[in-house]
Amino acid sequence: MSRLPLTTLLWALAAVAAAALLLYVWLVPGQPPAGEAATHEDIPVADRVTGGPFQLPVSTEGEAFDLRDLEGQYVWLYFGYTSCPDACPVSLGWIRMALEQLPESLEDRVSAVFVSVDPERDDREHLAEYTDHFHPRIQAATGPHDALEPVVEQYGVFYEKTDSQSAMGYVIDHSSSTYLVGPEGDLLEIHSHGTTADELVATLQAHAERE
């Protein structure tokens, strides 16, 4: 009997965990799973967050990712990794629900981007399969750490690899904010971890009404 490669099996288990947490968010929309928020940063660790355009060499939508390609769109931006056991699937679950709750006037004006800080495990194929679990309008990008470094600095993102005794080998501690980028590429809002879909949509609508 043939056996699945260990990396494939581990990633599949991570995908199952993500799907389970997504189901939780869907069935219990009022709040994220208890206790989970305490393990992640609620705000960026940087004193000054500038935001702005960036490029990464790996994209699920083409040869490379360039945030400027989404000019004219509002963008929900989130940094994480596909093997994340808790914060990432919950946050992407809220983003998915927000995309589905958009009023008709904004449906074609909003996108979402998931940036992986785990390029060793998250290649283009894994990223595409992972984001497909959530919503077709969520695309993903990543790159080597030297390419990620200026991007996370712009957005005040903290991430650090930590050895684990689990079969995954290591986990990544990371901040877990959701960023709202405006149609001109400027950073409009930084949402703390646990911000619900209703809140994401309400804030975006408020900005759109001020245009």
Features:
211 residues; alpha+beta; six-stranded mixed sheet; two-stranded antiparallel sheet; 5 helices; 10 strands
Brief digest:
With about 210 residues, the chain is an alpha+beta fold.
The ordered string of helix (H) and strand (E) elements is HEEEEHEHEHEEEEH
**So how many helices?**
5
Secondary structural class: alpha+beta
- Strand tally is 10
Question: What is the topological layout?
Answer:
Layout: H1 6-27, E1 55-56, E2 58-59, E3 65-66, E4 74-80, H2 87-101, E5 110-116, H3 124-132, E6 138-142, H4 145-154, E7 159-163, E8 170-174, E9 178-181, E10 187-191, H5 197-209
Parallel strand pairs: 4-5, 5-6
Antiparallel strand pairs: 1-3, 2-6, 4-9, 7-8, 9-10
Helix pairs in contact: 1-2, 2-5
